[in-house]
Structures are given as C-alpha cells and as structure tokens.
Write a structure and sequence with these properties.
Helix content: 25-40%
Number of domains: 2
CATH class of the largest domain: Alpha Beta
Number of strands: 12
Shape: elongated
Number of helices: 8
CATH topology of the largest domain: Rossmann fold
Radius of gyration: 20 Å
Structural class: alpha/beta
CATH architecture of the largest domain: 3-Layer(aba) Sandwich
Length: about 230
C-alpha cells in the first residue's frame, strides 16, 4: 500500500512541485492550502506523514501541529521560510519530528520523508494494551481479558482516546471534537450516552471493572486501576 503524504502548503508553485515529486516517488499525495480543515482530514484519513508549512492562512502550522498531537502521533515535518533557530525549536517543542527551511531542494524533502518514515516504521504497533484491554483501531476490535467488547465505531474511538491518554481528563466538548468529523448536529450530551454504553459493555465481561472515571463538572478519564 502506498504511503499517504499530506502536504499543507499555501504557495502554489511549491505545492505543485512537492505533489509531483511525491507521486514520482510512489507516494499517495494530498494537498491542503489552508490550515482550516487539516485536523478533520487527519482524523478521517490514514495519513502516514505530514509536510506542514509554518505560515498558513486560516490556522498557522504550529497551532495545527499542537492540535494534531492531541490525538495522533503521525510524523510531521515542519516547513518554514523563517531560518531563525527559535522557530525551529518551537516546531520541535510542539511535536514536529523534523524541520526543513525554504528555499529547499525537492530531492532533499523526499530524502527527509524517507528518513522519517524509516525511523517510525519499526515502532508501529496497531495493538494498544492497557489494564487488561487490547484495542486494534484498524480492525475496530477491542477485548478485555481476552473477551471481545462489542463497541460501535464511535464508542471505540472514545475508548481509544481515553485509553491512550491514561489519567488525562477530557471534557465532553473535547471528546466530541476529537471523535466526530462533523459536530454540527451532535450534542455534547451524546458523549454521556456513549460512556454509559461503554461501561455497560465492559461490565458484561467484568462487573468489577470501572476504568472510565467521571470528574464532576469536567469530564471523563481512563484510570489504570480497574
């Protein structure tokens, strides 16, 4: 399967060159020329690496990098026209994995993409293990103590979000925005219903298990103690 490269670049000439080189190298390339819509695209598609320009209309690259890191570890190469060290360090602090400064050679960009993908490939493990749970999001499968929990896709996304950020408290609104691609017709109270259903299904396997805690007036968290 081709690696999916998302190019987030507003300069037409640069984006066209990068698209052409990616396709020449055998990658599946997608282009976004505005910061708005990038987070939704990453949530809805299997992206293997992102070339993310620092200066973008809509939402800047650093903000996007920070938002993406809240739910994904997809490799990010920050692209910047600014050569100052502070901008490079900011990108790395916000979660980017590499950076490249304009002007650059497209061949250098391709070499960076290959290097970052090689670095991340050995670490890929589709199975998330925590407190007796095993979750495989690509197969929409989750088990507790070896028994399958019959979750809906949205319920699985909610559990995956909580289980990969143990002890972190998420508000209903945060969960809503991170698991739904379109929240225009969904209430944050839907999250309460989903959490209730997840707990019921967990209790069908283990009546004593209560990994999803409620923080009154705030939201929900996954606790390591069952």
């Amino acid at each position: 399967m081709k690696k999916h490269v998302l190019i987030v670049e507003d300069e037409q000439h640069i984006s066209e060159v990068l698209m052409a080189y990616c396709e020449k190298e055998g990658y599946q390339a997608a282009l976004k020329q505005d910061g708005r819509g990038v987070v939704t695209y990453v949530k809805d598609n299997q992206v293997d690496i992102i070339l993310l320009d620092l200066m973008l209309p809509g939402i800047d690259g650093l903000t996007l990098c920070k938002q993406i890191r809240e739910f994904s570890n997809v490799p990010i190469i920050m692209v910047t026209a600014k050569g100052e060290e502070v901008d490079r360090l900011k990108g790395l602090d916000f979660g980017s994995d590499d950076y490249i400064c304009k002007p650059f050679s497209p061949r250098e960009v391709m070499a960076r993409i290959k290097a970052v993908l090689r670095r991340f490939q050995p670490e890929v493990d589709s199975v998330i293990r925590q407190s007796g749970f095993e979750l495989e999001s690509d197969k929409y499968k989750v088990t507790l103590k070896g028994q399958v929990i019959d979750l809906t896709p949205i319920e699985l996304k909610i559990l995956e979000l909580l289980i990969t950020h143990v002890e972190r408290v998420y508000s209903r609104n945060e969960i809503l925005n991170l698991v739904y691609s379109d929240v225009s017709e969904v209430s944050d109270r839907n999250i309460d219903t989903h959490i209730k259903n997840i707990r019921k299904k967990i209790h069908l396997i283990d009546k004593e298990a209560n990994p999803i805690g409620s923080i009154y007036g705030v939201g929900y968290q996954f606790k390591t103690s069952l």
